Amino acid sequence: MVVKLTKDEGITKMARAIVSMCQIRIFNQSNDSFFRNTFRIDEKLSGIVRLQMKTTFTGLFLLFLFISSSSFGQSTEKNSAFTFGEELQFDVSYGWLNLAEAKLQINRRVVTENSRPHYKIDAFGKTKGAATIFGRVNDNWGTHMDTGTLLPSVSYRYIEEGKYRKNEKVYFDQKNQKAIMELYDRDNRTLKESKEYKLPSQVQDLVSGFYYLRTMDLTNLKKGQAILITGFFDKEIYNLKLIFEGTERIETSLGLKDTYIFSPLMPQNKLFRGDYPVKVWVTKDQNKIPVKIKANLFIGSLNMDISSAKGLRNN
Fold first, then answer.
1. What is the dihedral sign for C-alpha 307, 134, 156, 188?
2. What DSSP assignment string belongs to 193-225?
3. One Pfam annotation, family name (predicted)?
4. In this predicted structure, what is the pLDDT of residue 219?
């Protein structure tokens, strides 16, 4: 709906789009308190857009910690869940607004680290359409994962969120239980910082952790079981509680799928709503691919739904 306001109402000629949960209104900018409040909503929605990929992958990371740190999930002897060339596409939405698209991709070719073959796995996320009004996101999270040990040797993050930039590489020394983090400038050319961290044995990174989860046997999970664990991500320690919520058959773009459902207890923050705001649906088959993620936010909910799957190991 377009509302025309006159000069007598003290309105300037500068137009501004404000998105609410159910409609789009185009107003002229004003010093009135009503407009200042709507701009605050604008800023909050901008934050939602900028954090949508972080929300998604943090949910997957916490899910990995739950399974791999408990006796519920047992690692298989080999990877039979994914292979080179797999590509998963997702649509990210907030209510009726299509915010972004995401992709999980395993390169078709082997990469070599320390004379050993590795999977090169990338997670991409970027805003699209009208969502770029609130802040452009173009993120790439990636890992080089050993095809034998299923542990990472290198991980990286190339983050573009509005004016914010972060270019980071982490080199893992699994044998000596340490990692070197390198932070580069906004153009990803000049090394700004290098720091060494001590690690527990057989540590995963954000992306490799989720793919390691897919190699595990999840059949012995019991509904309602919870576990308290400590996780490390982005230089911080998190005390986490996670719940297996059971199984569910849901409709997806790939057809009806039987799925496992997981919910992590998220740290207190201004973005999420409720004790268990994030739910992840993973297919109950040999591929164990994520088909849906839902995050309840302070206003509305963020949804990530699979749109296509190519190169699956098991058809």
1. positive
2. EEEEEE--TT---HHHHHHHHTTEE-TT--TT-
3. DUF3108
4. 84
- φ, ψ of residue 313 to 5 degrees: the values are -70, -35
**Predicted confidence band of residue 36 (pLDDT cuts 50, 70, 90):** very low
* pLDDT value, residue 56: 58
Whether 271 contacts 297, CB under 8 Å: yes
**What is the per-residue pLDDT for 33?**
44
Q: What percent of the chain has pLDDT over 90?
A: 41
**Closest C-alpha to 104, from 140, 136, 78, 157:** 140
Higher pLDDT residue, 239 or 297?
297
Paired residues of 166 in beta bridges: 159
Q: Which residue do the tokens 């910082």 mark?
A: 193
Token pair, residue 68, equals 């791999």
Tell me what the pLDDT averaged over the chain comes to: 77
Q: Which residues contact 315 (CB under 8 A, 6 or more apart)?
A: none
CA distance 182 to 171: 8
Supply the DSSP string of 129-190, one letter for each residue: GGGGGS--BEEEEEEEEETTT--EEEEEEEEEETTEEEEEEEEEETTTTEEEEEEE-TTS-S
- Nearest Cα neighbor of 271 from 142, 94, 123, 129 is 94
Q: How far apart are CA 288 and CA 134, in angstroms?
A: 34
pTM: 0.78
Question: How many Å apart are CA 42 and CA 133, to the nearest integer?
Answer: 10
Report yes or no: 206 and 233 within 8 Å, Cβ to Cβ: yes
Query: For strand 301-310 and strand 97-106, is the pairing parallel, antiparallel, or unpaired?
Result: unpaired
Cα-based distances in Å from 260 to 104, 125, 304: 19, 24, 16
pLDDT at 50 > cutoff 80: no
Residues 6+ apart with CB under 8 A from 294: 278, 279, 301, 302, 303, 304
